[in-house]
Amino acid sequence: MEKHLFLGDEAIAQAAIDAGLSGVYAYPGTPSTEITEFIQGSPVAKERGIHCRWSANEKTAMEAALGMSYAGKRSLCCMKHVGLNVAADCFMNAAMSGINGGMIIITADDPSMHSSQNEQDNRVYGNFAMIPMLEPSSQQEAYDMVYHGFELSEKLGYPILVRITTRMAHSRAGVVTRAMKPQNKMNCPEDGRQRFILLPALARKRFKTLLAAQPVFTEASENSEYNVYYDAPNKEKGIIATGIAFNYLSENYPDGFEYPVLKISQYPLPKKQIEKMANECKEILLLEEGYPVVEEQLKGFLGKCIVVHGRLDGTLQRDGELTPDAVGKALGKKINDYYAIPEVVEQRPPALCQGCGHRDMYEALNEVLAGYEGAKVFGDIGCYTLGALPPFRAIDTCIDMGASITMAKGAADAGVFPAVSVIGDSTFTHSGMTGLLDCVNEDTNITIVISDNETTAMTGGQDSAGTGRIESICAGIGVDPAHIRVMIPLKKNYEEMMNIIREEIEYKGVSVLIPRRECIQTLTRKKKATKK
Amino acid sequence: MKTDIILSGVGGQGILSIAAVIGEAALKEGLYMKQAEVHGMSQRGGDVQSNLRLSDQPIASDLIPHGQADLIISLEPMEALRYLPYLKKDGWLVTNSQPFVNIPNYPDMEKVNAELDKLPHKVVLDVEAIAKEAGSVRAANIVMLGAATPFIGIDFDKIEDGIRRIFGRKGEDIVNMNLKALKAGFDVAQSVQ
């Protein structure tokens, strides 16, 4: 029963360890990365032999977590919101098979897109898969939910989706920890083939079982200690606040709530409590971080007309994360008088580090491509996405993990020349390899730059799955070794780099260029560590 | 006791170390604390900030509402101005005077200083110079913490303890360098107020 200062991510990690975890599976992604990193750094996790190596991507991570659960042990799978798109195939079907050992999936959503391409709300996935969901409102609740969540998962027989957002993941607060539980012993399910072989005949049965479980999930929500109804005398309106939105609501009522409030942190929606509010209050105000998920659901939920205000009718902004001010405004509260940002303040966008190899790669690439009028550069997700900004302005697209290679392929098929792809080493092994196979099979006229800094840099320098093997992976996929060209991205090598780039653009077929130099951040850290 | 603090600067300047020391001291004092930070893309030389809230009562929101911060601690003068909407009208601003210029359109310092001058309560000091003088070049952020200590609501010696605990595993030399930096910042701020 110690009190620690934990990030939301760290609270989740510690809770999983304390709850008898046997393995965490994840691919780094802001704001989820620190969960796995915390377990990797935990002496207890090491002592208990908890699996904590990074996976190649979110799909392989989730499948491995399901496999560990199949074998009877407790597993955790963590990802950023868009990672669940990658893992969705396994995710949807894990809801069909159910689990054996307790399994918790963490989705760390990023409303306001602090470090992401979209702000999708993965509670939609929870509803889609029809599994129970938890959404903590505090770091302590995050701890408690994960600590007890494995038992909930085992009791219900399904994986639990825990949804956090940036402000929960990356905010620190005091957290009281609980006693360490033993790990599960290996114990494969006796009815495994009935559940885990999703052939149509069996899958149909499993779907009926999942449907039949829905009232059980709802009952669990209605009885959950995380869903709390606070009564108040003024029934002009009732307020439903989900997850972290409850904090912003409380911030606006330091002396107690004026209207009845229902705090929702466990899904599916607790029907009883919502019915009570709809019967007693004239209208309902919905406060939720992310999409208007509950708001949309509520309209037909009770089979009768209720007035709901929220993000859909403009009571709250439709996009972006909530803030205490945004919630205050929706409540009709007076906002403090405050200073404006002086006009003299300029934007300060992030930039590639000084001394970064991506810089030298872009310098040389830009110089060569200046000679080709129709050149298009298809970018990808990582530090090198910053090549979109001045002074480089070097890429034309950035859509999703691995899309650089396959979009360049489609564009090349359409006649774009040169069609250049720029992808990092970690993103290449995450989702680029299968696209490269498509290119090889059709001998697409494409130039792929795998800018290799031997780490997963953007998220803070985690291991990269293919380090030391990028050339052999490409050759194994079938790229002609004569057109796999390694170079060291340094100013003194510009002439040589440009010659190679030019040669490979002119080669009609698949070429892979590998500018390789270690990330300046990980290199600096290593140097510091050896000095001590 | 309740203090709402915005920490600001440029990625890599070390605002999170300041937050860690204050947080450590607050926890030992038995205070409630919430501290929201932003990791990820912005850490690559972009603007970074952290919301730090301390109170002897439970804290609801991780984020500070507009016009409610008691204090802005900034390692960079233009970044101090960026978060003015969060500062109370009578709040304190403690900032480094030296710009971190990594954008081509960085404004004239005269204009930045003119904006700083408009504020009723501020401490503006050259933390790098003070750090250098104190022989702690790498602890400019801790000089800034020292300068801001009178406004945090936690005693100076408790902040010193926080430094000992946060930097303890890095060895005695590092601890002493940071303690010196803290004291130097504290002294200079006292004399310019």
- Termini separation of chain B (Å)? 23 Å
Supply the helix-strand structural class of chain B: alpha/beta
Largest interface: A-B, 52 and 54 residues
Strand tally of chain B is 6
Query: How much β-strand is present in the residues of chain A?
Result: 15-25%
CATH topology of chain B: Pyruvate-ferredoxin Oxidoreductase, domain 3
Uncertain stretches of 5 or more adjacent residues of chain B: none
Low-confidence stretches of chain A: none
CATH architecture of chain B: 3-Layer(aba) Sandwich
Question: What is the number of helical segments of chain A per DSSP (H or I, 4+ residues)?
Answer: 20
Q: Give the second-level CATH assignment, the architecture of the largest domain in chain A.
A: 3-Layer(aba) Sandwich
Helical content of chain A stands at: 40-55%
Helix content of chain B: 40-55%
Output the CATH homologous superfamily of chain B. Answer: Pyruvate-ferredoxin oxidoreductase, PFOR, domain III
Structural class of chain A: alpha/beta
* Rounded average pLDDT of chain A: 96
Count of DSSP H/I helices of chain B: 7
Biggest sheet descriptor of chain B: 6 strands, mixed
Could you name the CATH homologous superfamily of the largest domain in chain A? Thiamin diphosphate (ThDP)-binding fold, Pyr/PP domains
Q: Quick one: biggest sheet of chain A?
A: 6 strands, mixed
Spatial strand sequence of the major β-sheet of chain B: 2-3-1-4-5-6
